[in-house]
Specification:
alpha/beta; about 20% strand
């Protein structure tokens, strides 16, 4: 499957979460004091994940078998010759939103977010040190109303900003509001979906401040094929507004699409990239 994607011409390779049950598992097997919970809907989709039950204060395990296994997978992927490699991790806000503090060891959801952020940042740095970029799946940024300047600083500025553009902070199912965009560090790669962006034109100016934008132009929640001319026009329009688009991608996970449609949309994405380069 990955060789097929490489043959299509994708520049960035990943394991496509092929060995993952969902965005949280088996990732959480490298974390102390958590267990898998029950099936719940992943936001407003016909896609389900198991939430996480917190038994005591969470921390990163000394030995990390899932991380080690993933590194082995990516070492094999390197033979395919992609120009970059990237791995998917849950964002701290999103995984905290799907966690149940059964032991009541945390005084607030914010403290759970911060502890998850410390764990995820350490794992992210380990991947980056092995030549693998990281995409943080953080749709919760599009829905939360709990973020403060201090919480953003403790999570994204202090922990992830030092890792720079190699961290893709990927939002989907909407667009973060203006207040949140104002608070996010500008040196991360911000992933944002074009569909919602078109409905929120007032945030165009805010995106100019980010040094690297990953634009989700292909809809992974709809089997309808986009028109290539519309996609090319959108990219040029945003670039003309001074937005620094470095990556084009799907707007969210491809789990929502039948495989045959996903391949067609990958080919469409590649055609857009080739047209823009010329």
């Amino acid at each position: 499957m990955l060789k097929k994607l490489k043959d299509i011409g994708l520049d960035v390779g990943s394991d496509l979460m092929y060995f993952d049950d969902d965005i949280f598992y088996p990732f959480i097997t490298d974390i102390q004091n958590v267990e898998r919970g029950w099936l719940v809907r992943y936001y407003d989709n016909n896609y389900f994940v198991r939430n996480i039950v917190i038994k005591s204060k969470i921390s990163l395990k000394t030995t990390r078998p899932w991380f080690t296994e993933k590194i082995g997978v990516y070492q094999k992927l390197s033979d395919l010759g992609f120009s970059e490699y990237i791995v998917a991790l849950p964002g701290p806000l999103t995984i905290a939103n799907y966690s149940i503090d059964e032991a009541r060891v945390y005084v607030s959801k914010s403290q759970i977010m911060i502890d998850y952020a410390r764990i995820i940042a350490e794992i992210a740095e380990s991947y980056i040190n092995n030549g693998i970029r990281v995409e943080l799946h953080e749709p919760e940024l599009c829905f939360t109303s709990q973020l403060t300047n201090e919480l953003i600083r403790q999570i994204y500025v202090d922990l992830f900003s030092p890792l720079g553009e190699k961290v893709h902070l990927v939002t989907y199912f909407g667009v973060p509001n203006l207040e949140i965009l104002n608070l996010l560090p500008r040196d991360l790669t911000l992933g944002i979906e074009a569909i919602s962006l078109e409905k929120s034109r007032e945030i165009f100016d805010k995106l100019k401040d980010f040094s690297s934008i990953r634009l989700g132009i292909v809809d992974s929640r709809n089997t309808k094929m986009e028109k290539i001319d519309d996609l090319i026009s959108l990219v040029f329009k945003l670039e003309d507004k001074g937005i620094h688009i470095k990556y084009l991608s799907f707007n969210s996970m491809t789990e929502f699409l039948p495989e045959v449609i996903a391949y067609k949309k990958v080919k469409l994405l590649k055609r857009v990239v080739e047209a823009i380069k010329h």
